[in-house]
Design a protein that fits this description.
206 residues, alpha+beta, eight-stranded mixed sheet, 3 helices, 36% strand, ATG101, Autophagy-related protein 101, protein kinase binding, autophagy
Length: 206
């Protein structure tokens, strides 16, 4: 197994009402890009449209993956943020891909989790109240926020695609993933979620 490849993404700042959708999009995209190369559209992959931002993207059509991502994004907003200023909080997510490697110990055979790739995403969440009235100033502010956020999403997605092309030669044949809150690879104070992809194919590199 090659050394772990760290793939840090740039820190992004998002308004709270756009953050859940954006973080889910990023996680779905990374997992899709690390999924089998023999995926079939409509069978393994489905298109989805963002509700608050323009764009149509693709994700794995596995309910367990969507459920896992939704749960971890929800946990992130409940427990993973630290206030750093007025209407501004900071947190991070990490997505780790690993294999389970059999090892021997004094107590008999056991399985060791070996991480070969780790994506990290630092996030700033702006909780400034969103202007909802129809005044000219409110409309301008909503449009400005939307345009700014769309550029942020486009930039980070471009970085995701670029990083996904690195280290392809070292990917194992099959692997699993964890989503961790707080950037911790292991559950040492942060919260993480190990997904076995039950009821669906393992992640294969063919």
């Amino acid at each position: 197994m090659a050394n772990r490849h760290d793939k840090p993404l740039p820190e992004i700042e998002l308004p709270r009402y756009l953050a859940s959708e954006t973080l889910s999009l990023i996680l779905h995209t990374i997992i899709l890009l690390r999924a089998p190369k023999t995926l079939s559209m409509g069978v393994d992959v489905v298109e989805f449209r963002l509700e608050d931002l323009d764009g149509v993207y693709q994700k794995l059509k596995y309910a367990e993956v969507s459920k896992n991502i939704d749960e971890q994004v929800d946990v992130f907003f409940k427990t993973g943020l630290t206030d750093i200023g007025p209407d501004l909080s900071k947190g991070s997510l990490s997505l780790c891909f690993h294999v389970n490697k059999p090892t021997n110990s004094w107590f008999g055979p056991k399985t060791e989790k070996v991480t070969f790739e780790r994506w990290s995403l630092p996030v700033l969440i702006n909780t400034t109240p969103r202007p909802l009235d129809d005044s000219t100033a409110s409309v301008i502010e909503r449009n400005r926020t939307r345009v700014t956020s769309q550029k942020i999403v486009a930039d980070v997605m471009g970085r995701v695609y670029d990083l996904s092309l690195e280290g392809l030669e070292s990917l194992p044949r099959e692997y699993q993933y964890d989503i961790a809150i707080g950037g911790a690879e292991e559950s040492t104070g942060g919260r993480d979620s190990f997904t076995r992809m039950a009821g669906m194919p393992m992640l294969f590199n063919t």
